[in-house]
Amino acid sequence: MTYALDTNTIIFLMNGNENVIEKRNKAIVGGARFIIPPVVDYEIQRGLLYKPSPKKEKNYFSLRQHYGVGIMTPEMWVKSAHIYFDLRKKGFTVGDDDIFISAFCLLNGYILLTRNTKDFENIADLQWLNWIDD
Questions:
Q1: Number of domains composing the chain
Q2: Is CB count within 10 Å lower at the N or C end of the chain?
Q3: Using an 8 Å Cβ cutoff, are 108 and 1 in contact?
Q4: pTM of the prediction?
Q5: What domain range includes position 48?
Q6: Nearest to residue 24, comparing CAs of 43, 10, 37?
Q7: Per-residue pLDDT tens over the stretch 3-43
Q8: Would residue 35 count as lying in a domain?
Q9: Is 84 helix (H, G, I), strand (E, B) or coil?
Q10: Has residue 134 been placed in a domain?
């Protein structure tokens, strides 16, 4: 099983949240893998540039090196357009970043770890978990 880390989950890991770290460690023991969606990498890096923190930067790049960053393929852009269309048909609007993250997860069969469940709950077939508030 592979978990894709949303921006908020990475921030909790970088800040040393014991609950999230414990769940991650338990998942690793169970054989789980982790990956950072490319859009999440962008969000974290822009945040570190805007508000520099050597400690958080060190923590993030350690996570990044260990888990790796995924790649957005042409198929993911197409899937993203379909997700956007499906949501709009149902009367929902979700930010593009979250749509791109969803397409990345859906096409790769990843489970998204996020606290931002509101933006992801209406995306068909997307599997997500909230390790922060559980």
A1: 1
A2: C
A3: no
A4: 0.94
A5: 2-129
A6: 10
A7: 999 999 999 999 999 999 999 999 999 999 999 999 999 99
A8: yes
A9: helix
A10: no
